[in-house]
Amino acid sequence: MNKFEQLGLNESLLLAIKDLGFENPSEVQEKAIPVLLEQNTDLVALAQTGTGKTAAFGFPLIQKIDAENRNTQALILSPTRELCLQITNEIKLYSKYIKGLHTVAVYGGASITEQAREVKRGAQIIVATPGRMQDMINRGLVNIKNIDFCILDEADEMLNMGFYDDICSILSDTPEEKNTWLFSATMPAEVARIGKQFMSNPQEITVGHKNSGSATVSHEFYIVNARDRYEALKRLADANPDIFSVVFCRTKRDTQAIAEKLIEDGYNAAALHGDLSQAQRDGVMKSFRGRQIQMLVATDVAARGIDVDNVTHVVNYQLPDEIETYNHRSGRTGRAGKLGTSIVIVTKSELRKIHSIERIIKQKFEEKTIPNGIEICEIQLLHLANKIKDTEVDHEIDNYLPAINEVLDGLSKEELIKKMVSVEFNRFISYYKKKRDLSSQSSGERSSEGRAPQEGDAVRYFINIGSRDNFDWMSLKDYLKETLELGRDDVFKVDVKEGFSFFNTDAEHSDKVMEILNNVQLEGRRINVEISKNDGGGRRDHNGRNSGGERRGGFGGERRGGFGGERKSFGGDRDRGSRSESRGGFGGRSSDRSERRGGSDDRAPRNERRSGGTTPRRSDSPAPRRPRRS
Ligand code: ADP
Ligand code: MG
């Protein structure tokens, strides 16, 4: 007999479980399912994230629901829209062989009337976020007065997010006799309070130690000087070419900044935080799930809904303020029985926090040192060799081989290998050649790598278009780049005022700038460019980036690392697409650009430019990331 059958689950669930490919119940499932099936009881179940709690309540719930009765019989509350949708999705999968059973998701940010309509059509199970649920109740759009089951999923997260009042209010709208099942990874005081207030004699199930970390996650810390945090992060990424990670920062601002830096440096990264629109967040999560993003830089709150299997690393770029939060972070990896690593980048002064965390998670951290340049080069080289070995050959290439052979004729196998590997590898060598070790014991003086590169003189221009013409610094920069046919970093320090703006280019482009721009028209108006007397020019700054410009929420779509034009950044298209629509004005440009970005036409020139070496690029990065193609 199948293990799930032994737990008492019926035929239609067993069929669905078979389709899902679940072979054995997880521990929390094994403990919760029989209890919930056999008894009408309240329940508190504590288990780490990723242990299969959704099915632990979902299976018995579905079996107990009367699918022939169209009234709402169960309410599942979950902290975020992401989770709400995910649970809904899971429940639908579990119940796919049960005719007439309907599950509806109720969450903020989507049409409340549409959701109400769906509920009205008959939803035995509602999965909701507390805020929207409260809203629906207030407007009389749902009736939960007769439900039999209420499930509080990720209760600790919900309370963390400040839903205490909403939850209390929602629960008081439900009947006394119902059963309440509370699922949580941890048991802070507030959760206990809810339990006391709204549950009677709950059964308790605990999987693993209370509050302890998952056994499939190993914990490492790296001591660095505070100023080396970012460099350390890059090295950790470079030392793990297949990294698929969530990087935690403490604030939205840091999250955005680190993601932008990573993107600039050529990594497949994106930010996830509360200042992004729902559409942007959805876009980021889609890319992350699709693995186009290898480093998802997130705040704790934004990362709450993340349930992506196969995350290889959680990186604590900064430790959380509340040590409890560490558990939630590290629970993003090591899910569904997979192994994962939780990395902490710490300064010496934060070391005692590591020891406090060890006490909470009842696991030891391993102290490690940030790999040095040579080690990273070795890793990357081997990775590359393996990639070459594992690459499947598409025989389309045969057609081109004669021409290729002609070019490469006369090279020995050894030479050919060296050169092939060097194509990808030179940038690592040249980047890391100059780099020092990052162990925090190293001398306190800042090394040369922190200094702005000394590059060619820049020229600052005045131009008679500005925000009145619907430009902001990003769109003006794009417009200039496109009009001047310059590369992505060639226009910088764009500063947009109302009726005019300033920008810089390297001196070598100044003839071109004057010549082209003074001969174009913008919506019928002559553009006028002058070299600015007001010297804001000087040298290009470290990042070659606008210092004065305002930063909107985008991910700096155009700031892809200089290598390989295919690298993508995320959210930017969407963001700008909508902005340009709402502005009217230069609406066409943004969409043109996003099309172009998706295409391959800007790859070759970029690489040519690079190898031509005329313009110094951001050189402070090995820019190793490429999109995964798996
Ligand atoms: P939790 O709510 O505890 O964080 P989930 O319910 O989201 O965990 O499950 C985590 C992952 O494990 C999901 O991808 C889920 O499909 C998978 N999973 C759940 N139960 C099983 C099982 N018995 N066998 C294999 N995979 C499972
Ligand atoms: Mg869950």
Question: Which short descriptors sum up this protein?
Answer:
single chain, 630 residues, alpha/beta, Rossmann fold, Alpha-Beta Plaits, 3 domains, seven-stranded parallel β-sheet, 24 helices, 40% helix, 14% strand, disordered C terminus, binds adenosine-5'-diphosphate, binds magnesium ion
Characterization of this structure:
The protein is an alpha/beta fold. It folds into 3 domains: 3-206, 3-Layer(aba) Sandwich (Rossmann fold), CATH 3.40.50; 217-371 and 557-597, 3-Layer(aba) Sandwich (Rossmann fold); 454-546, 2-Layer Sandwich (Alpha-Beta Plaits). Helix content is 40%, strand content 14%. It is built from 24 helices and 20 strands. The strands form 4 sheets. It has a 7-stranded parallel β-sheet, with helices on both faces. Strands 10-11-9-12-13-8-14 form a 7-stranded parallel β-sheet, sandwiched between helices. Strand 3, helix 6 (112-120) and strand 4 form a beta-alpha-beta unit. Helix 3 packs parallel to helix 4 and helix 17 (373-390) runs antiparallel to helix 19 (413-433). The longest helix is centred in the last third of the chain and has 21 residues, at 413-433. It is globular and about 80 Å long. 42% of the residues are buried. The chain binds adenosine-5'-diphosphate and magnesium ion. The site of magnesium ion has 4 residues, from helix 4. Residues 34-205 form the Helicase ATP-binding domain. This is RNA helicase.
